[in-house]
Specification:
Elements (H helix, E strand, L loop, with lengths): L2 H32 L10 H22 L4 H25 L27 H17 L4 H25 L5
């Protein structure tokens, strides 16, 4: 399969899943706000909302123009993407109506400690890094892939700090 076709199909799949996630997030966000959820200050969401899709776009472009990977790397990238999406949707399912793109915390609500949250503090973010790495491998984006992953990891580190603070003291965030 040509690099352009691989990058196009991967992009369609990724952005299709992003739309599903966006729809779930918007539905849940309304419910959380109605329940009195608090959104902490200093979140990096405004940057994440363009940086995350942009990372996939630049990787797809690199892959379409310069990619010439083997079937093995394409297959490995696809498998890692499926595993990452599986982990993400397990996290979404475990959080239920409390999962959104934004950090929204209902004061007094208990922490979720089942599903992947029984093993990992932030499984959704582990899945996000897996998605970025898998796209890089899938389309052979050997320059923009690592760069996008490292830069987005910096955003996630800041996001995790905001989220942890909000979960400890939702009324003080």
């Amino acid at each position: 399969m040509s690099p352009v076709r691989i990058a196009s199909l991967a992009s369609l799949a990724v952005f299709g899943m992003m739309l599903v996630e966006w729809w779930i997030s918007m539905r849940n966000e309304r419910r959380l706000r109605d329940a009195g959820a608090i959104e902490p200050a200093q979140d990096v969401y405004s940057t994440m909302q363009w940086a995350y899709p942009a990372a996939f776009v630049v990787m797809a472009l690199e892959g379409a123009v310069f990619g010439s990977g083997s079937r093995v790397t394409t297959f490995a990238g696809a498998l890692l993407m499926m595993a990452s999406k599986g982990l993400k949707f397990w996290a979404i399912s475990s959080l239920g109506w409390r999962w959104t793109f934004r950090v929204l915390v209902v004061p007094g609500a208990p922490l979720v400690d089942h599903g992947p949250y029984a093993m990992l503090r932030h499984p959704n973010y582990v899945a996000v890094i897996g998605e970025l790495v898998s796209m890089a491998v899938l389309v052979n984006a050997w320059v923009t892939g690592p760069l996008a992953t490292v830069l987005f990891s910096v955003l996630l580190r800041s996001r995790i700090s905001v989220e942890n603070r909000a979960l400890r003291h939702p009324a003080c965030s």
